[in-house]
Amino acid sequence: MKLKQLESLLGGLQQFSNPKVELEQYPTGPHIAAGLLYTAENSFDDISNKVVADFGCGCGTLGAAAALLGAEQVIGIDIDSQSLEIATMNAEDLELDIDFIQCDISNLGWRGQIVDTVVMNPPFGTRKKGADMDFLFVALKVASQAVYSLHKTSTRDHVKRVALRDLNASSAEVLCELRFDVPQLYKFHKKKEVDIAVDLWRFVPKRSRGKDI
Amino acid sequence: MRMLTHNMLSSNIKGVTNGFPLRIEVEKVVEKQVEINHDFLRNIFPKIDWKAFFDASRVMGYAELPEEAPEPSVLESDLEFLRKFHHALLELHLEEGALVCPETGRKFPVNKGIPNMLLHEDEV
Ligand SMILES: C[S@@+](CC[C@H](N)C(=O)[O-])C[C@H]1O[C@@H](n2cnc3c(N)ncnc32)[C@H](O)[C@@H]1O
């Protein structure tokens, strides 16, 4: 599938109808989502024929993109049932077979590293401090191959240090820097949307076969 | 929820030491056909906990799998086995029912195919 075609399919997906600010619910735009998955597939071979998990899947954009690029099994996980309902409809519209689980990522119980690749746009931790690193911690435990994630550019050094030192990553690499429209993250902002700098990361987990969480 | 997902998910209630595998209570199973991918099946096979998978498939109403996990070489040649493995792993969905923690008996409901694994405050 061509990048443009992927982007246009993702552009047709329904997004949060009633976003919950405390869960940092805002969608990854089709351009960024398509680019992320396209890079994962074409530069690193991390998507097609793989088991892919979408952490904090919201309305399912990243997971849908993975399925469209040929992931054999996609698992979308979110804490919020309303988002999962929309994600289910989105998957049905595109005739994609995606498994959804309602769960708080911090409490996920998982057997070993059966997932190949985790893709995620985690809450940046503006509401709940460290939320993005909580996601990364769990992602690096369940993935055997790679974790793709977005984090604020302002936290770049911190993310790299913690990932390598504490979170089971054997490598942590920024693939590119993006501009991201984030609605109402800061109360003191007058504008409805702020444009922030975000890094697209690729992490490689250390092998630790057989470890459960 | 597919049986592949069931084979990874476990109960994470505070104090539980082995929350895997979750016992399945079936109210409704649906089947959705997907194209078979032999390479994928060969790659995933060594990662599957066979006993949990065998038991789960039986509860889901599918009794064609061997109780003992076959040798990996069987996957190279036995197309009939691959078909059955594929069907049980990827085409059977638990649509309505529950997943039950093997240690505490706590039920996690499954509605419209989505297991609700949220924990109560006193379980984390
Ligand atoms: C920034 S949004 C990204 C949504 C979606 N992945 C996308 O790309 O459009 C973050 C998502 O994480 C979910 N979320 C927040 N905290 C969570 C938690 N502790 N466990 C699971 N999901 C959570 C929110 O409900 C929301 O859908």
Automatic annotation (TrEMBL), chain A:
The keyword Zinc does not apply. Keywords: Methyltransferase, Transferase. Pfam families: MTS. Gene3D superfamilies: Vaccinia Virus protein VP39. CDD domains: AdoMet_MTases (cd02440). GO terms for molecular function: nucleic acid binding; rRNA (adenine-N6-)-methyltransferase activity. Residues 45-129 form the Methyltransferase small domain. The keyword Oxidoreductase does not apply. GO terms for biological process: rRNA methylation. Belongs to the methyltransferase superfamily. PrmA family. This is Methyltransferase-like protein 5. It comes from Theobroma cacao.
TrEMBL record, chain B:
GO terms for biological process: maturation of LSU-rRNA; maturation of SSU-rRNA; positive regulation of rRNA processing. It holds the Pfam family Trm112p. It comes from the Eukaryota. One of its GO terms (molecular function) is tRNA methyltransferase activator activity. GO terms for cellular component: cytoplasm; nucleus; tRNA (m2G10) methyltransferase complex. Belongs to the TRM112 family. Interacts with TRM9. PANTHER family: MULTIFUNCTIONAL METHYLTRANSFERASE SUBUNIT TRM112-LIKE PROTEIN, UPF0315 PROTEIN-RELATED. This is Trm112p-like protein.
